[in-house]
Amino acid sequence: MGVPVTVDVINVGDPSTRLVSGMVGIDHAVEIQSFAFDNVNNLVYVAQVAGACSISYDQSTSWKTASGSYPVSASLSMAMADNEAAGNLAITQLPMSGAPPNPPHSMFLLGFGHGVAIGVEPQASQTYIWVECQSQPPANGDGFGNKVARVPFTPGAVFQASSSDLELYDPITIQNGYITGYSCALDTQNGLLALRYTENVYNQDPPPDVISTKYVSAYSWSSTDGPDFSAALATIQQPPVIEATDLDVFQGWTLYGSWVYMLDWDKSTSPYTIYTTSIDINGDDNPNGGGTYHLRTSSSADVDADPREPEGMAIYLIPTSPTLCFGITNDTIEYGITFHTLDMYGKV
């Protein structure tokens, strides 16, 4: 079938321009994981692990780690590693120009995932966040969502993954296996919702050997009817060159029209090498790497940033032309306190 939208590819090899510097979410001690734009109201929504937040909130969902289980209805400020494993997120609304409100407009999503990528859907009276949900805590490491949720952005609210206020989707099923690690990208201009996910197929009968492969699928979407998950318009495998080793870490992605853009970094180099990749989801214009991607280049943006960790990708449509944006963490120190700030760069 294919994505029936024709747009020009954004050249990931072009130089980047800094759009915003020093962006901070609700918690200055935690890196921003991803972001997405409200291109109607010129706002950006940032996602970060709820980590070392100084406020306490009520966790009313029991979940287990390798060392045991947290009690139901415990009111606490959890350690960063515990929040990562639980999939607890903070979503903060920030203006693209001018000073943010103090305190910023934020909400918490408990048991959702890691916030690899989010989508923003502005409606007349309510903005919705598309995000992974129902995180599965691993034996160690980060929790990632195994379903997809549409959440009304509500400043000051705390949503559980089991909340009845959510629209919850389990859009993909496969034979002889299961789906994990959803993340979302919403292209409101071209009527598309895209999902990145891992397909896990049992390699023998009976299990447990599993072959895991990452894909991106695009679905039609409208502001009145939402997504049509009955059939994907197009699906493409994530290029094997991305996450080829344990030191090549995936850091974000987005979609605009038929083009998917991905962000990763190679932690084996010094300074770290940041890569941006463009992929035709219809598969018609991917000449490189055995036909798996269109163009892949390293970025020289923010070379002096520390730690220069790339975080998130999204499309900015103000004033009119689409700009491919990605973030780079750049720590600053004020009064002896480290602020994990984000510098945002764009390619037109």
Main traits of this protein?
348 residues; mainly beta; Tachylectin-2, Chain A; five-stranded mixed β-sheet; globular
N- and C-termini, Cα separation: 28 Å
CATH architecture: 5 Propeller
Structural class: mainly beta
Radius of gyration: 19 Å
The strand order across the widest sheet is 2-3-8-9-13
Report the uncertain regions.
53-76
Number of domains: 1
Q: How much β-strand is present in the residues?
A: over 45%
Q: What is the mean pLDDT?
A: 86
For the sheet with most strands, the description reads: 5 strands, mixed
Q: What is the count of helical runs?
A: 1
- The residue fraction in helices comes out at under 10%
Q: Rough shape?
A: globular
- Number of DSSP E strands: 26
Text of the CATH class: Mainly Beta
Order of helices and strands: EEEEEEEHEEEEEEEEEEEEEEEEEEE
Folded structure, characterized:
There is one protein chain. The protein has one helix spanning 80-86; strands at 17-23, 34-38, 43-49, 57-59, 64-65, 68-69, 74-76, 89-95, 105-110, 119-122, 127-136, 144-152, 158-160, 167-169, 177-187, 192-202, 210-222, 226-227, 234-237, 248-256, 259-266, 273-280, 295-299, 307-316, 323-334, 337-347. Mean pLDDT is 86; it is low at 53-76. It has a single domain, classed as Tachylectin-2, Chain A. It is globular. It contains one helix and 26 strands.
